[in-house]
Design brief:
Helices cover 76% and strands 0% of the residues. The chain is globular, with a radius of gyration of 22 Å. It is an all-alpha fold.
């Protein structure tokens, strides 16, 4: 093997060790550690980008080894998605101790998530038309063609051939154990339904047989604590995973790509910024201070931004809602878990809408046609149910929406090269939407936040991680 390869690998390992030592001797919050990892990755990746040519075999070989850390971290996050969503829903329901309350909480939470997704879709259409974005003239290179073929082979054949009634039927868990492995594109929604039914059954058992029911509820609580311990183990690895992922992203990015898609990146973040304002406006309407809310949830949004995983943010999402915002545990668990699978404002709302609106002119469709826009917003809102809260969820949403609207998925493949840059902001918006839904649901059901002292308390802006 070339000497340069060994040098690159050793330098990568040294940087990992240096980060570990820095973290060991500094009592920093996880958010700060993650940003340190991002900074190290950006500098190291840019240095490699400047030293080696894009097609350098030495660098490709080096990145393949670096990717053990980056992709390994992503794989660990993916490993936790199904058990995390399952136990979050199950635990939230069993804490209700009253099946009648389940309907109110779930209807309000899901209703708010879908309503905000509908608004996000409208914003996506407006922003694309204001910026005049279009897929016309975009060049499809060899790399993008390979990605397109991969998408068509592994996803489109499984999703686009389904009608909406079939997609809805696929949510029903015929084999929940297979769905827990993610066997189907809609497995995550099937897991949500299975956990919901199992939780309702546990409540009924507790009512009919207090002794056995109590044992079941205790077992669910222990299982949740067990899963959370697992999550915290993986979350500690986030700075190192981010370092490796950013290193790869910066190396792969070229100036031409960012120039070609620069306006799309800017437009996407403007759309997301507007949606953050919408969240704040909704909070204000219900008498909740949006500025204080933003300060308290910022650390979780920072983690979501860097990890690019709504699902991985669930534990911090719940803890922030209960410990900083004063939301009841059951509602916090519901909004966090549902927010990672239903109505993701960024990944399932803004992104697929922007793609569809950009592609429409290439198919002879007027993107300003009111009927077409209404149809698109409806399709986006409905298809947002069950989008997985991990990196790539936005592409999954686009692969449902575009074929449903009779549009090609080519642009989804083209934009994969800049996905990480946009996905960070989208994930933060998803998580913010979930916490907004939780706080508003709590306000509607309880007429006030459970413990307003927690919401009014001025605490330090640190990532809320506890393992007790």
């Amino acid at each position: 093997m070339p000497v340069a390869f060994f040098f690159n690998t050793i330098l990568f390992i040294i940087l990992l060790v240096v980060m570990g030592l820095i973290f060991k001797f500094n009592d920093w919050s996880l958010a700060r550690k993650v940003f340190i990892g991002l900074l190290f990755g950006a500098i190291f990746g840019f240095s490699l980008h400047m030293i080696y040519a894009a097609d350098s075999p030495v660098l490709k070989q080096s990145i393949a080894w670096f990717d053990i850390v980056g992709s390994g971290y992503v794989a660990l996050l993916q490993m936790t998605v199904m058990p995390l969503v399952f136990i979050s829903i199950l635990s939230a329901i069993t804490r209700l101790h009253d099946a009648s309350a389940l309907g109110k909480i779930s209807i309000l939470t899901i209703g708010i998530l879908l309503f905000t997704t509908m608004i996000a879709a409208c914003i996506g259409v407006i922003i694309v038309n204001i910026f005049g974005l279009s897929a016309v003239g975009m060049v499809q290179g060899v790399a993008e063609t390979e990605r397109l073929n991969l998408l068509e082979t592994h996803y489109t054949s499984r999703i686009s051939d389904l009608t909406f009634p079939q997609i809805i039927l696929s949510f029903i868990p015929r084999n929940p154990f297979a769905d827990l492995t993610g066997a189907n594109p809609t497995s995550i929604m099937a897991v949500v339904i299975f956990a919901t039914l199992l939780g309702v059954a546990a409540i009924q058992l507790a009512r009919d047989d207090v002794h056995r029911g109590t044992n079941v509820l205790s077992a669910v609580n222990i299982l949740q604590l067990w899963i959370m311990k697992l999550i915290f183990l993986i979350i500690r690895l986030t700075p190192y995973g981010v370092f490796a992922l950013i290193t790869k992203m910066v190396w792969l990015s070229d100036t031409g790509t960012f120039v070609n898609f620069g306006f799309f990146i800017i437009a996407s973040y403007i759309a997301m910024a507007i949606m953050f304002v919408v969240h704040g406006s909704l909070l204000a309407i219900f008498g909740i201070n949006p500025f204080r809310f933003s300060v308290k949830v910022f650390p979780v949004l920072a983690f979501a931004f860097t990890s690019r995983s709504s699902a991985a943010s669930i534990p911090m999402n719940i803890e922030t809602q209960t410990q900083r915002l004063g939301v009841p545990q059951a509602i916090a668990g519901f909004s966090a878990a549902f927010g990672a699978t239903i109505g993701q404002n960024g990944c399932a709302g803004i992104y697929p809408t922007m793609l569809a609106t950009m592609i429409a002119p290439t198919m002879g469709i007027n993107p300003l046609d009111s009927i077409w826009i209404t149809t698109l917003v409806g399709v986006v809102t409905l298809s947002s149910i069950g989008v997985a809260g991990v990196g790539g969820g936005a592409t999954f949403a686009a692969l449902i929406v575009l074929p449903a609207m009779g549009l090609p998925i080519t642009l989804a493949a083209l934009l994969i090269s800049i996905e990480p840059l946009i996905d960070m902001g989208r994930t933060a918006l998803n998580v913010n939407g979930a916490m907004t839904a939780g706080v508003i649901t709590s306000k509607i059901l309880g007429k006030k936040i459970k413990d307003k002292r927690l919401f009014d308390k001025h605490d330090k802006c640190e990532l809320p991680i506890t393992e007790g």
